[in-house]
Write a structure and sequence with these properties.
heterodimer; A: 117 residues; mainly beta; seven-stranded mixed beta sheet; B: 114 residues; four-stranded antiparallel beta sheet; 0% helix; globular
Chain lengths: 117, 114
């Protein structure tokens, strides 16, 4: 079955460390997204990519970096510059373009819970 | 700029009672509207969406929502809830003709009690 796989499910980071969260999809979707979820704040967009080798900052990109070398993969690195990284991170994908075809909604992964220790 | 408001952070309800989760949006252009559900420590699952056409949209698990353009609302309803409906519900919007970036509300925690 097609879907999105996020790994690991739980991740612990020491102060000052960079960590990378994995996101892989086999839906043949063009666009991929990273969201951060904190209690009571909903989901906030970190980065998104509409096509391979291209990505844009979302609303809260500071302290994060991404790459999109393959259509299937969109890893997120949480750098030491991110002062409050403890959160639940969700990856999503969708068909790209404009119009109705692009707006069938997103498919989400099951998330990675990152905790700073 | 677009925004989504979910006024109720928590909604307690007894099993088999009806429920309405409220969602209002603000946008200077037309929007596409979505409701997602999230069970604990899981990703989001699409419940239903409004793209065009009939303003009453039916989704999975017996949920439905009505698009009201004059009130800029997209409230989610279910006539009789079950314990298994306990979850967090998110309303979200996409601007028409503006790519496909989803903007989410802050979520409503639905707690169904016996």
């Amino acid at each position: 079955d097609g879907g999105i796989t996020q790994s690991p499910k739980y991740l612990f980071r020491k102060e000052g460390q960079n960590v990378t969260l994995s996101c892989e999809q086999n839906l043949n979707h063009d666009a991929m997204y990273w969201y951060r979820q904190d209690p009571g704040q909903g989901l906030r967009l970190i980065y998104y990519s509409q096509i391979v080798n291209d990505f844009q900052k979302g609303d809260i990109a500071e302290g994060y970096s991404v790459s999109r070398e393959k259509k299937e993969s969109f890893p997120l690195t949480v750098t030491s510059a991110q002062k409050n990284p403890t959160a639940f991170y969700l990856c999503a994908s969708s068909l790209s373009g404009t119009g109705v075809r692009s707006n069938y909604g997103y498919t989400f992964g099951s998330g990675t819970r990152l905790t700073v220790v | 700029a677009q925004s989504v408001t979910q006024l109720d952070s928590q909604v307690p309800v007894f099993e088999e009672a009806p429920v309405e989760l409220r969602c209002n949006y603000s946008s200077s252009v037309s929007v596409y509207l979505f409701w997602y559900v999230q069970y604990p420590n899981q990703g989001l699952q699409l419940l239903l969406k409004y793209l065009s056409g009939s303003t009453l949209v039916k989704g999975i698990n017996g949920f439905e929502a009505e698009f009201n353009k004059s009130q800029t609302s997209f409230h989610l309803r279910k006539p009789s809830v079950h314990i298994s409906d306990t979850a967090e519900y998110f309303c979200a919007v996409i601007l028409t003709g503006g790519g496909n970036k989803l903007t989410f509300g802050t979520g409503t925690q639905l707690k169904v009690e016996l």
